[in-house]
């Protein structure tokens, strides 16, 4: 058991080392996208362009997280991520053509989110809700 964990940790370390520059550039591009997106969102809400930028200042971090769902011979047994809310302000999801399953909970009912392959889905998180309650 411990050997597989050590191999797994070693594999992750190798991938992280080899992909460091790519991930750094990806995160930098996501930051640029966020910096363009927030003023546009403020305009749509009839707020000052810098409304959200003023809320977070330099504290608006950008994080990259990746979920991989390998093919499974029994997809009926796969649950994916546990039901959760996104604690972030904005989550950008890159939608592919083979993995679905994104749902939202409203009034106790789960609804499938329609998606289009090779697009970005913008999900407003918990921090957006808190910001707008002020």
Q: Could you list some keywords that capture this structure?
A:
single chain; 2 domains; disordered N terminus; 134 residues; two-stranded antiparallel ribbon; 3 helices; alpha+beta
Number of strands: 4
Number of discrete domains:
2
Largest sheet: 2 strands, antiparallel
Shape: globular
Cα-to-Cα separation, first versus last residue: 50 Å
Low-confidence stretches: 1-5
Computed over alpha carbons, the radius of gyration is 18 Å
Strand order of the largest sheet: 1-4
Q: Structural class of the secondary structure composition? A: alpha+beta
Question: Helicity, in percent?
Answer: 40-55%
State the order of secondary-structure elements, H for helix, E for strand: HHEEEEH
What percentage of amino acids are in beta strands? 5-15%
Mean pLDDT rating: 77
Count the DSSP helices: 3
Q: What would a concise description of this structure say?
A:
The protein is α+β, with helices and mostly antiparallel strands and 134 residues long. It is built from 3 helices and 4 strands; from the N terminus they run ααββββα.
Structure characterization notes:
By secondary structure, this protein is of the alpha+beta class. The chain has two domains: 1-64, no CATH class; 71-134, no CATH class. The protein is built from three helices and four strands. The chain has helices spanning 2-44, 51-56, 126-132; strands at residues 90-95, 103-106, 109-112, 119-124. The strands form two sheets. The protein has a two-stranded antiparallel ribbon with strand order 1-4. A two-stranded antiparallel ribbon has the order 2-3. Strand 2 and strand 3 form a beta hairpin. The radius of gyration is 18 Å and the shape is globular. It starts with a helix and ends with a helix.
